Amino acid sequence: MRTPRRLSFVAIVLAMALPVVAQPTAAPYAQPHAAQPYAADSLAASSTEPAPDAPEARVAAAEAEKVRLQAEVDALAEQRAQSEASLRSRARALYRLRRSGMLPVAGGFDAMLGHLSRVERLERMVARDVRSVRFLRQREESLRAELELSDGRIAEARREADAERARAAEQAQMAASFAMAFDPRALPALPVAPLPPLGHPSLGHGTFRVHGAEPTSGFAALRGRLPLPVRGGGAMREASREDGRGVELLSPAGSGVVAVADGRVAFAGRHGALGLTVVLDHGDGHYTLYSGLAQAAPAVGEWVGQGARLGTLGGEPLYFEVRQGTRSTDTRAWIGL
Question: What does the radius of gyration of the chain's CA atoms come to, in whole angstroms?
């Protein structure tokens, strides 16, 4: 019986390709068209490892990865189109050879063997093309899914870069504010009445002093008599932070930190390795520094009285330092040790 001429070509290709793919004689598929490798190891080898601490590098790497994925998708689409064209061409040739039936028998035994050899060779080629098209389609679908996810990765990398830049700007601003804290000209003068001298009866412990001008110079007279800045005391040891030397006071979490003398808040915020820090300006170039706080109470520019609460500890030791200008002094001598 002859095959009807109106039978669709797609149905013929599938009818021939499915039994051909199942033949055990077909060679295993290694890689379609040796023009470009698409194995997973080649993808890993071509990816660029971004620097972990560079937000701009992470954004650039995510954008470069999207460009690479798009280029590979385009190359796969072109390669798949070539494989499909090759499959159609060879399937047509195989169909024509199979339709010829036993006609080569008339040419003798050699003609029949040649015919069968051509049929077998075309079957192997069609089977290889079928596997190639199937592989390329699956790979293209996988890469397109990765391409869709790449937009989210780029957006996330940009958000992280913006957050990193904002943190860097905040740290730079805090560093500048910390440096200016030891310059009395950096804070504007408050147009209010002067504070009474240190030790005046009207100055109570634990009170904020929010009015007054520069306190009268008297901090130097407190050398050897400064109270401890932590209520309840605690174990003390010498310590250093950045380029200064002071003492650490080991007190329980929740302990209150108080001002050791009247002063104006010159800095309140986070600064480098110091962490959350309060700096008090006591006049005549004398400053006290309180760092390692869990919470800080006063704001920059406020005047506080001796014993006023500056903040609380959160389990970390309080680092306390007395400075003359930007130079740290012997803090233990100020406390009387």
Answer: 41
